């Protein structure tokens, strides 16, 4: 039976559980459940703290787990990224009081508050910058105002928390992070894991594409299918009116409005967009 670690709390937990549910696995019913047996899929899910998941995977007590790239690297564990999952995207950055620092060299000799000491020390060591780290569990943004540190290194998504604390990012980003499925070399070839990966990829693809249907005059078909070439090739079906055909094609969700405009321009009508639930491409 495949053993998978899933975040039990924090920003990673809900999207990870939704992704698994959409991929056809049993969803967690209550927030207090620690272990969940999914007999139909031959998988056991363990709900653990996101920061601890790399440790369990590294020890081989579970076959794989979902955590953040930043947490994986900070754990220093010998687990590897198997599949990026596209949610909980953030950057990991240095930030200091507005106007105080502009360059990485400004960090030398200063105190950096962070929850990710290993990640920060490795970054500084690579660049030969000497500075002290102050470990804090959370709310790192408050540390500068409270006099515990001169700058911070923390997760930034919208930047709202930084602004509220009177801080601004500076220097190059330390890391671009997102949720990732991790495993070890010993388990990377597990058949159950390959099934999980295929299903997760199916959900992610379905989320990033939509299905587009439209009718177009036969003599404009070549123009329309250039706009929506699909994955393999668009489906073209006859209509009762022999001068028109119906076309169905997958298109990237991000492009859908532009493509609808372009199709209309070349004469397509009745352009419909619908959601995909899952797919195997
Ligand atoms: N605002 C955010 N946007 C995107 N990802 C985030 C955000 N905050 C934290 N993360 C990601 O979540 C993971 C950290 O999870 P963790 O549960 O330790 O902290 P959290 O989500 O901040 O929850 P909490 O602090 O409430 O326990 C990291 O991978 C981090 O990059
Ligand atoms: O750029 P933003 O959109 O503001 O998001 C980033 C903030 O979100 C997380 O904090 P969280 O709320 O989890 O609190 P914590 O610091 O106690 O972990 C993270 O640690 C940052 O502080
Ligand atoms: Mg947090």
Automatic annotation (TrEMBL):
PROSITE patterns: ATP_P_PHORIBOSYLTR. Residues 206-276 form the Histidine biosynthesis HisG C-terminal domain. It catalyses: 1-(5-phospho-beta-D-ribosyl)-ATP + diphosphate = 5-phospho-alpha-D-ribose 1-diphosphate + ATP. Coiled coil: none annotated. InterPro entries: ATP-PRT_HisG_long (IPR020621), ATP_PRibTrfase_cat (IPR013820), ATP_PRibTrfase_CS (IPR018198), ATP_PRibTrfase_HisG (IPR001348), HisG_C (IPR013115), N-reg_PII-like_a/b (IPR011322), N-reg_PII/ATP_PRibTrfase_C (IPR015867). Keywords: Amino-acid biosynthesis, ATP-binding, Cytoplasm, Glycosyltransferase, Histidine biosynthesis, Magnesium, Metal-binding, Nucleotide-binding, Transferase. It holds the Pfam family HisG_C. Its EC number is 2.4.2.17. Residues 49-201 form the ATP phosphoribosyltransferase catalytic domain. GO terms for cellular component: cytoplasm. One of its GO terms (biological process) is L-histidine biosynthetic process. Its main location: cytoplasm. The keyword Glycosyltransferase applies. Pathway: Amino-acid biosynthesis; L-histidine biosynthesis; L-histidine from 5-phospho-alpha-D-ribose 1-diphosphate: step 1/9. It is an enzyme of class 2 (transferase). Its cofactor is Mg(2+). The keyword Acetylation does not apply. Catalyzes the condensation of ATP and 5-phosphoribose 1-diphosphate to form N'-(5'-phosphoribosyl)-ATP (PR-ATP). Has a crucial role in the pathway because the rate of histidine biosynthesis seems to be controlled primarily by regulation of HisG enzymatic activity. Belongs to the ATP phosphoribosyltransferase family. Long subfamily. This is ATP phosphoribosyltransferase. It comes from Actinomyces gaoshouyii. The gene is hisG.
